[in-house]
Amino acid sequence: MNPDVTASIVLRPAQSGDISGIVSLVNGYAAEAIMLYRSPESVSMTLHDFVVAVDSAGTVMACGALKEYSPSLAEVASVAVARDAHGLGLGTAIVAEVERLARKRGIDELFALTLTPRFFESAGYVIADRALYPEKIRRDCLKCPRRIRCNEYCVARSVQEEMAVAA
Ligand SMILES: CC(C)(COP(=O)(O)OP(=O)(O)OC[C@H]1O[C@@H](n2cnc3c(N)ncnc32)[C@H](O)[C@@H]1OP(=O)(O)O)[C@@H](O)C(=O)NCCC(=O)NCCS
Predict the structure, then answer these.
(1) Which residue is closest in CA terms to ligand 1's atom 40?
(2) Could you read off the pLDDT of 101-158 as tens digits, one per residue?
(3) Beta carbons of 118 and 165 less than 8 angstroms apart
(4) Ligand 1: residues whose CB is within 6 Å?
(5) For position 52, which CATH number holds?
(6) What pLDDT digit, counting tens, does each position of 32-79 carry?
(7) How high is the pLDDT of residue 112?
(8) Closest residue to atom 48 of ligand 1, CA basis
(9) Quick check: 30 and 36 in contact, CB under 8 A?
(10) Which 8-state DSSP code applies to residue 31?
(11) Dihedral sign of CA atoms 22, 9, 34, 111 in order
(12) 138 alpha carbon – ligand 1 mean position (Å)
């Protein structure tokens, strides 16, 4: 992909027309056990939590979602970038957009479970103990087929500091 193409990419909240693009992006990686599968119905029901990056043709090139656990805690989830657009900063831009959404909703703390901790570290996250997030373990981990041999890293960051700086 030509880096110039990123100039025409727009970051915005997801719309109903993006559902199939989000599902095919996420499930392409789910097929490789890199991400969890998402059904069109589950994306549709949580569409207000998704942000997308779309190209000039309206194709979803990247997505991410804010998954709320409490009024102060949420997960950065479903972060995926189209394979031909890796390394152009889209993943970082999506995470920043999810963080913006979190701040807008007054959420203080974000975490993620990921196979690529370096990516999140470059966005300011630090390795954390997943035991700090029992809500996640109860909601997703207990029913995950990989729970016994999970190789995902837990990463976290506070967005409260940025709220204070921005205030
Ligand atoms: C991980 C992913 C979202 C990164 O998206 P991207 O747009 O290529 O990432 P960026 O261009 O914003 O890269 C930002 C930084 O992360 C690093 N990075 C990106 N992908 C990486 C990977 N797979 N392993 C290690 N570091 C990675 C980059 O080198 C870059 O580092 P720098 O800031 O020091 O230059 C993308 O590769 C992807 O969709 N992977 C499949 C799904 C997935 O693993 N999602 C992760 C969340 S569960």
Answers:
(1) 80
(2) 999 999 999 999 999 999 999 999 999 998 888 887 777 777 777 777 788 899 999 9
(3) no
(4) 29, 34-35, 79-81, 86-92, 114-116, 118-119, 122
(5) 3.40.630.30
(6) 988 888 999 999 999 999 999 999 999 999 999 999 999 999 999 999
(7) 95
(8) 114
(9) yes
(10) T
(11) negative
(12) 27
- Ligand 1: which of 38, 116, 121, 155 to mutate, most ligand atoms within 8 Å of CB? 116
Report phi then psi at 7, rounded to 5.
-65, -25
Largest CA distance in the chain: 43
Query: What's the 86 CA to ligand 1 centre distance in angstroms?
Result: 7
CB 60, CB 53: distance < 8 Å = yes
* Structure-token match 């890199």, residue found: 34
Which amino acid residue places its CA nearest to atom 43 of ligand 1? Answer: 80
- Residues linked to residue 54 through DSSP beta bridges, in sequence order: 10, 60
The number of distinct structural domains making up the chain is 1
8 Å CB contact between 151 and 121 = no
For 76, the domain range is 3-166
Query: Which pTM value belongs to this model?
Result: 0.92
